[in-house]
Structure formats: C-alpha cells, structure tokens
Write a structure and sequence with these properties.
2 domains; Ubiquitin-like (UB roll); nine-stranded mixed sheet; 27% strand
C-alpha cells in the first residue's frame, strides 16, 4: 500500500517536472521568435490624423524597427510609452501573439473645436488637450477666436461641452468668438446671422431659450430676416432684423 502511494507521488512529481520542462522549453522558443508582422488597429475603424504606416514608424526600439527583432528583447511598456508621446494619440495598447505579430490598438484624440489665436492655431479635445493641426485630416468642428490664454480656454470649454453633447447645437454652431468684454458671439450654419450669447452664466437656460426661439422662427421661415439673436438677457430673446 505504501509502495503504491510512493509510486503515485513519484509519478506526480515526474509529470509536474515534465510539464515544467515543456513549458520552459516552449517559452524559451517563443521568446526567441522574431516579430514578423505589425498589425495596427484604430478604435474607430480607421485613422484620421494617423495612417498605419505613420504608427509603424513610431514602433522603434534600439534605433530600429521592431520587425525582425526577437520577442524577448521587445519592451512593450517602453514602446507603448513612446507611441503615447504622439500628440494625436489618446490611448494605445500593445501586445504580442504566439505567431510573431505585434498588435497595436490606437485611440486617436477627438477634436471638439479649433482654436485660432493671434499667433497659432490648434485643436482641443474633450479633455482640453491641445492637438496640432494635420495635413492628413481637417476636423469639422467649431472655430473659436478671441481665446488668448489657458484661462480663456478653460472657460470656453464649458460652452463647447454643451455644444458637443447636444445634437442640434453640434450641427448648428460653426463658430464662437470671445469678445474683449468676455462675452460670446456664435455664428451658425443655418443663416447669415449671429447669436449674442453674453457671458457664461445660465448656460442651460440660454440654450433652452434659443431652442424655443428657433422652433418658432424656423416654422414660419423668418429666421433669415434676422441679423442678430440676443439671448443674454434673463427672460427674453431679442431678435434684431
């Protein structure tokens, strides 16, 4: 009985040792396998600011492309960190597969406005991160002028957030101008008139008034007779023809 038990333990030890050896052998062979393919996938199905070839050029380690390098020398953390240094990339995830493919999943930054200052022009995303303009893609977002510093940028983003999250305003508002008085004017897609928004107070109430006004003037087609629509006063909308 004792002999059977001993043999059982011996067999178990041999089995575990064999599995450990096979795992180590397989792992060693896998680590020596070279990267033979790079697969780039974009979160939205396609890249706008970046192309697959542009992302491939970011995948540099030891001053050379990752292709033909052994998997054991690939530092995914450092590679991912390098990719994230690109101003157009918000998130990146890298992982290797057994067949020698380096998979790269990219989420690009999504602009919500284009800021035009006296000496520069750039996009900002939903996190107020500045994104440079690109020759590959021009985002269809509101143009913002009159913003000259980061404090102004923080303020105007409050209005931009409301526009981005409202389907009607997202289609209608094409421009925002911050005046020296710290009041806002907005240009629209539907006609040759401006909306005088005023200062960033009672934002939700002003938007509600604007929509109510729109629902009336769009029905009788009088919207095009206005030069300015003023919604900055508390309980009224003033239309100037």
């Amino acid at each position: 009985m004792k002999l059977k038990r001993i043999l059982k333990y011996v067999f178990l030890l041999i089995l575990l040792g064999s599995l450990g050896f096979l795992y180590g052998f397989s792992n060693a062979r896998n680590s020596q396998k070279e990267i033979n393919k790079v697969s780039v996938q974009f979160d939205l199905g396609e890249g706008y600011f970046l192309t697959q070839s542009m992302v491939n050029k970011l995948l540099i380690q030891n001053n050379q492309r990752v292709q033909k390098q052994a998997k054991s020398v690939i530092d995914l953390y450092q590679l991912e960190k390098k990719v994230l240094e690109n101003p157009y990339i918000e998130k990146a995830s890298l992982f290797m597969t057994i067949d020698g493919t380096l998979n790269t999943q990219i989420k690009e930054r999504q602009p919500i406005a284009r800021i035009i200052t006296s000496n520069s022009s750039y996009y900002i995303d939903s996190q107020a991160v500045k994104v440079p303009l690109s020759g590959n893609y021009s985002a269809r977002v509101p143009l913002v002028t009159g913003v000259e510093n980061d404090k102004d940028l923080v303020e105007v983003k409050k209005l931009l957030d409301k526009i981005v999250n409202d389907e009607f305003l997202q289609k209608e508002i094409i421009g925002i101008h911050l005046k020296a008085t710290k009041e806002y004017m907005m240009t629209v897609r539907s006609g040759n008139y401006e909306i005088e928004f005023g200062k960033l107070t009672e934002i939700d109430h002003k938007i509600k008034k604007l929509k109510a006004f729109y629902s009336k003037v769009f029905l009788d087609s009088t919207i095009h007779s206005y030069k300015t629509i003023n919604i900055k006063y508390h309980n009224q909308v003033v239309g100037v023809k």
